[in-house]
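User: Before I run my own analysis I want an independent prediction to cross-check against. Here's the chain; please return only the structure tokens and, at the end, one sentence I can use as a sanity check.
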Amino acid sequence: MEKIDIENFWNKNFQAEDIQKYLTTKEVPAKTTLLYEGDVADNIFIVDKGSLRLWNNDDGNDITMQFFFENQIVASFESLYSDQPSNFSIESMEDTKLRILKKSDFERIINSKPEMREFFTQMICKRFIDYTHYFLSRIKENPRDRYEELVAKEPKILKRVPQYYIASYLGITPVSLSRIRNKIQKES
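Assistant: Structure tokens:
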């Protein structure tokens, strides 16, 4: 499987007129829920501007699984694929401009364009790899290590995402995150 250069593929294929006709544009304010946990996903969201998060409600505890920014594609793919209720909600964190692709149009596109099927296959595989890393880090690493890895690998998250969502993503409370950050600053 040849790896696709996502940026070039994106610009070439998602701007193509035959794809654009399937996309609708929507602007939503911060804290808008695009998919509720328990609903069946029937849309794929493409972030043009802003940010989204994928999260789960565990008996009132917010567990953020992933953040998405410009030119990233978001869906509850498990629900979209299986037509089963989603285990996740999708919510905007900032005022966000999206393009929306309906499931029926998505299926039409990937069935008629092999390069689009390959693109989505690689994208979903990357997301699966990211989830595997996320789960293993929650098991093997302590909260400080998880925070330091986030700082090293995803600094834009620290600039754009509220601290309580970062804490949720790291599996700690906002107070614990504040303590970790203060301790690291004192050591520097």
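Sanity check: The chain has a mean pLDDT of 88.
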